[in-house]
Structure formats: structure tokens, C-alpha cells
Amino acid sequence: MDINLKGTRTGIDVAVSLNEKLNIPFIYTSSLGDKTTIDLAKATNPSAYPVKPFKEEQLMVAIEIAISNFDKKINTKHQEGVAIYNDAIFVKDKHKIVKVFLTDIMYLKKCENYLDIYTAEERFTVRSTINGFIDSLGFNKLYRIHKSYAVNLDFVSGMTQNSIMLDQIEVPLSKSYALDLKSKLRIF
Amino acid sequence: MKILVVEDEMIISEDIRWMLEERNYTVTDQAVDYDDAIQSIEKILQI
User: Fold this and answer.
1) Domain housing A141
2) Domain count, chain B
3) Searching chain A, which residue's CA lies closest to the CA of residue B30?
4) What's the pLDDT tens digit per position in A159-187?
């Protein structure tokens, strides 16, 4: 990402907005090497800052390293606050650690970088992605139905074109996941 | 791996896109200003 862009706002403004909402790695590529710019850029935590003109290999190495560091960060983070033990997980709940059986998980809801785990009676929050969490459990009853939701198929009590019922709870269903879900539940 | 190129000079942007695609990265878009960049990111992530 260049720092000087068209218009009044800069690449640093893009980075600030990115960092407020998301966790995405980025690399600055700029000919600006003055202290003020470097200080502003540093504050946004870029993965690298190859100064123009750079060689092709310099950019590629910066990208490879950024991706590798990001992968390591994600793989660490998706376990944060969760310990997996056989058919259960241990999650932090305020000042204690609570055991939650996988079969008791009704659904998952993503909230930015966090994941809310809902059982019939409680909610626990961990730092994770939906796919990262499901993959790490290897529990095939949890099924993604929306960009922000996954449900335990054993709790599904009904569905409409755009929602899933889990007894009294209704969660949104994306069209893109509906066909796969119907096939999984053998609904034709 | 999806990559968005944010660069106001189209020649450089194209050059970077070409380099990345040569190495099998997917360049999802090329943005030239702040609004373009934010819109592209939101589109890619379906926010």
C-alpha cells in the first residue's frame, strides 16, 4: 500500500481504519522516508515498509514474511482462552475456568475478533474465528450457516428460507450455506 | 492468499499485480484512494 494516494487521505489513514475494525496484515510501499512519515507509519504496525524504488525480490520477501507472521499469529490466537480436552473445552469465564461439553454448544456467534459460544444457559467469549474454532475441535456437529454464525445440528428444530430455529432461538441463515445445510440434514 | 494493491500510480500498481500473480497470489482489486481501498476490503470480506 502506497502512502501517497489520490485525494486528501493517505495510505496511513487506510491503515488506521483497517486496524480499528479488522486484523489484516499490510505492507507500505512508499518513496517517503522522512522521520515524520516513518513515525506515523510505525504507529499503525505495518508488516514491512520497503522504500521505493525497491527490487521485486525485496517486495516478495516482505510479503512472504508478513504472511508467515500473520499465520503464526492467527494459529496462536484461535486457541486463546480455549483448551480442548477430549469431548469438551475449557473456557475462561471471569475468574474461573469452566468445562463445556461440545454437545452442549448450541451455536457460535462471531463478534469482530471474538467468538461467543452459546449453550442453552450460558454464553462464553473466546478470541477466535468461526472456522478456526470449528477446525480445532474436530466436532462435526458444528456447522457454519452464516458469515457470523455456526450451529450445532443436533439443536436444529426448524428452518425458514433465511433462518434456523434452535428451539426458541432464531439465527440467520445465508443463502450460500443453505443448500449445503439442507443436504447435510437430508432436507430436499 | 488474497492481496489488495493500494497504489495511486497505475503503472506501479499493474507492475505489482503482475509480480504477485506471477507467484500465484490472487490480487482481488487495485485501489487508488482511501475510499476505493476501504470499499474493496469491505467487498472482499463481505462486511
Assistant:
1) 83-184
2) 1
3) A1
4) 898 999 998 899 999 998 888 888 877 76
